[in-house]
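User: Show me sequence and structure for the first protein, then do the same for the second.

Assistant: Starting with the first protein.
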Amino acid sequence: MSKIKKISFKVNFYEYIKPFRIAPGTSLSTNNLEVILETEEGYVGFGEATPSFRVTGERIEALIPLESPINELLKGKDTKNFRRLFELIDKFFAFPSLKTALQYAILDALSEEIKLPVYQILGGGKEEIETDKTVSVGSIEERVKEAEEIFKEGFRVIKIKVGLNLYEDIEAMEEIAKRTKGATYIVDANTAYTPKQALIFTKELYKRGIDIALLEQPVSAHDLEGLKYVRFNSAFPIAGDESIKNRYDALRVIKMEAVDYINIKLMKCGISDALSIVELANTANIKLMIGCMGESSLGINQSIHFSAGLGVFEFHDLDSALMIKEDKFRGKYKIKIPYYIPS
């Protein structure tokens, strides 16, 4: 038995190596909340919350005051009963990134106690996973250059951000495809296109012989009819991201037949909801990818162990820790570009 003794919060500030630009805005830094969970037996588990006001409405200032009620809720509880604890933490549904950090910290402390990595606690589905790396929004020349650099680094799945200028996006994709032959492309509009623009984009790529694995969140998060319209008229698979923040959103888009892929991000939903979404998607024959926000190595560690444990994700967009400055590597995984190996 390993009972929870104390849970502490710590705010960590990270700068991006270079500005990270997507259609809705540019990120220069990120404030993440580290969760430290200590048990009476001396085991310590770590988690990280990366709140996104744009996606989930969370701000780190709203998470910090929850330290005391979280301790009241979980103190004395046994980490071995983690599914029961997940249900308690689910009451904090308005704070999905904090849910993730707490739920993972419980698993991490349990992992330390029983000497079994978290990915094996979750099933040991894969021994390694392949990540992509992302090209920020920029000029055609900037995006082409960044894509070439990523390809030369050894990444074979390249994610390209689009959405500010439709026709520049098309030209950038054509040039990137010429310069990085053999790569697989994930294109992400981050809600920036209208349904008609999304279809112009996909039709132009198809006409020019440019193959993409999927187009992610082409339209507004709340425009599910538009998302469905694009999916039924696109030559390429369509993924939902910002439209799917929890298990109920996932059920809705599955019923509507609005997507081919669901992008699970632990920061949007917590580990408990992510487990439910996986089962819903598998039942409905919807494919899965896993993404990230602005996690450090400590935070991306959570998604690496989750995805390797379940082994069900076709694409892994887990590159945030490669894009920020860190004084110390905190992950329980090894990097062998383009692979992550959980440990």
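Switching to the second protein now.
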Amino acid sequence: AVSGTHGKTTTTAMITQVCIDGNLDPSAIIGGKLPYIGGNGRVGKSETIICEACEYVDTFLQLTPAVSIILNIDADHLDYFKTVDNIIKSFHQFSTQTSRVLIVNGDDANTRKAVQGVTGAKIITFGLKPGNDYSAARISDKEKACEDFTVLKNGKKLLDVSLSIPGRHNIYNALAAAATADYLGIPADCIADSLHRFTGVHRRFEILGKFNGITVADDFAHHPTELTATLTAAMHMGFRQVWALFQPHTFSRTYLLLDDFAKALSIPDHVILSRILAVRETNIYHIYSKDLAEKIPGSVCRDTFEEMADYVMARAQPGDLILTLGGGDIYKCANLIVKRYQEKTEQ
């Protein structure tokens, strides 16, 4: 079971792909579409099942996994949890429900706190810092912000990884996948090859098309930590300018993390904000996108996806990246932009 505030879908998909390549024939339940299997789930013939474990409303406490991965623990879903300490308590309970092995981010203080006192499962750590059971060494940026690095196991080389997906945050995801696959007995060369061939999942920096030198992409990032990781990667990919079209997701998250959102959205060259997507909430916080825009120099707000598309397409130049971001239906704006560019190309 793959848990954590950020990176669950990508890591679940990575582990699924590596396990298929390693002939474990797993079943899988993934929170996004994995092109390798043509969907977000599969039924295998083995007794191994890989699933994404979401913490919202303590859903993951319905699971009793043999192996659990905790990628990180961050302030999110505060409409339910109220405090970070309550989130950590839930992850601690999840850890106690794990019977064999906990594979956890040893660099993350909240994760370390969550597994303190857990005695029913062996704890294996991963991270960039020395001292973790699995760590990354000799990290080097490739073109398009993809990473090359060596995975060390107890300080000794296990394998070399050359990722095909961008962002330093994916080093952590790949380390978690490599540690899990190694525990399951998959050969190191198979792990390395499978991680290299992993090209991501739907709505995770998904390139939708290139039109007259302008790249259009879509990403699920809807929390400041995720936005920071995705936008930092985007800014290191060699584009002339990056246009971020962000749909804030829930009033509570926007209100409670407003300054963090403003900091993250100050990374790209340009920001266009949609209305806040209410999802399950009413606006008891009296928070609006204009409140966020006031904290981001040069940003603008637009009420509809059509207006957002109009604004960015009138200004984007060859060499630019148009990147839609959010956990709601902002992908519809990306699809609209792609459709308009396609129609222009056909004329």
